[in-house]
Amino acid sequence: MSLVKKSFACIAVLSVLAFTSQQASAETIYQAMARAYENNPDLNAARAGLRATDEGVAIAKSGYRPTIAAEAVTTSTNTEGFTTSSSSIGATISQTLFDGFQTRNNVRAAEAQVFAGRENLRGTEIDILLAAVQAYANVNRDNQIVIYRQQNIAFLQEQFSAARARFDVGESTRTDVSLAEAELAGARASLTAAIAQAKSSAAVYAQIVGSSPTNLQPVALPRKLLPGSLEMAIGQGVNEHPAVLAALYGVDAAGYAVKAQEGTFLPGVRVSGSVAEDNDGISTAQVQARVTIPIYQGGAASARVRQAKEQLGQQRILVDKARRSIEQSVVSSWTQMEAAQATIQANRAQLSAANLALNGVVEERRVGQRTTLDVLNAQQSVLNTKEAISNSERNAIVASFSVLASTGKLTVDRLGLGVANYRPEVHYEATKDRWYGLRTVDGR
To answer: Is 2 part of any domain?
Structure first.
């Protein structure tokens, strides 16, 4: 075996080991998304963040509840050399009866923040599922390009061998042999780059999905899930996307925050009681009711109200921003999807013509009407078109799923992924009314 053939064989073996040593089981794009939904650390972190937000409701509701404390006091007094000591133990309880509706509004604001957090979590889920789609499509594209470049090397190897054989019998020049050899060397370098790119895409896939890609299957466009028109897609996006809904809940939370701050100007009523027993056994019990009427608070309360109102105005602006951003995303994804589909059709027609041209040039070269350079150029055109088709197919897949993501429809239920849907309300219901306890709902 010649050195050239040995080199080609080594490259082929390495590429086969890297990209075709797959297990028998196939993996679809929906299975990849299901794995990402269950295993992605960014998504699990977002879920933990929402559980922390749930505790804000319990914190706000503590304003409705009494505070109880026990105390032990020991006092030693020295007066002109005489020391006296006393001690007592006791307990105090305090209950707010009215605080200007601050607690009520704080609870409502915390609840709105929880609802906003749920929408943000849903948005994170959509982002992760779309990232899984992109990673899946990238791996498929890059592996296909590796195959195309392997096939290209095999073709160029034949051309190099044929050119050298013709040179040996005096039917071609040294230039033809050198051209074929140079093209073959360049093809090997391109294959090496393609293998590196495929490995990089596989690493990204493993990061997002949680496992290495295994025998990925071709992907069909989710036509049945897509909106019927661009206008319908825009309408769904600006009204139903989690980013928009989260911004609307943010407006609710900011509105309740304004009311809570305004409550600091209203009277407050608080009742407290205490019981104590000193070292002589004398017990003392006391009940106290206190009404507080704010008159002037140094301007801080007024500033907090103004601040809260500005934050409310900011949240309202963010709703408009979210809607415009979603509309732009829908339009961009939709147009990219249409462009990719049109490009696929054009590229396939181009590939058919390029294959015919390559076959014709090869035949013409055999009868001396074409040169080796003509064959190499025709083969390069075929290779470029094949890779363009792979890129266009990848773009069409990503763009179509991006349309679903932009409309807020790229969800577990909508896709039918067959994986247990995370239900944030379970933790919320379990923790919102807890009076005590240091352990989390799951026992940590």
So the answer is: no
Average pLDDT over all residues of the chain: 88
Name which of 113, 107, 207 is nearest 424 in CA terms: 113
| Residue 439, in any domain of the structure | no
Which tokens is 184 given? 């073959």
In which domain, by residue range, is 395 found? 10-431
Output the domain CATH number for residue 386: 1.20.1600.10
User: Domain for residue 167, yes or no?
Assistant: yes
Q: Report the C-alpha gap between 389 and 344 in whole angstroms.
A: 6
The model's confidence at residue 262, banded by pLDDT at 50, 70 and 90, is very high
pLDDT in tens, 338-360: 999 999 999 999 999 999 999 99
Category of 443 on φ-ψ map: left (φ > 0), alpha (ψ -120 to 50) or beta: left
> How many structural domains are present in the chain?
1
DSSP codes joined into one string, 370-415: S-HHHHHHHHHHHHHHHHHHHHHHHHHHHHHHHHHHHTT--SHHHH
CA distance 357 to 369: 14
Sign of CA dihedral 125, 43, 439, 60: negative
Q: What's the confidence (pLDDT) of residue 318?
A: 96
* Interior angle at CA 212, CA 210 and CA 217, nearest 5: 110
Do the domain assignments include residue 164? yes
Nearest to 33 by CA among 414, 425, 364, 430: 414
DSSP calls for 167-228:
HHTTSS-HHHHHHHHHHHHHHHHHHHHHHHHHHHHHHHHHHHHSS---SBPP----GGGS-S
Residue type, 198: A
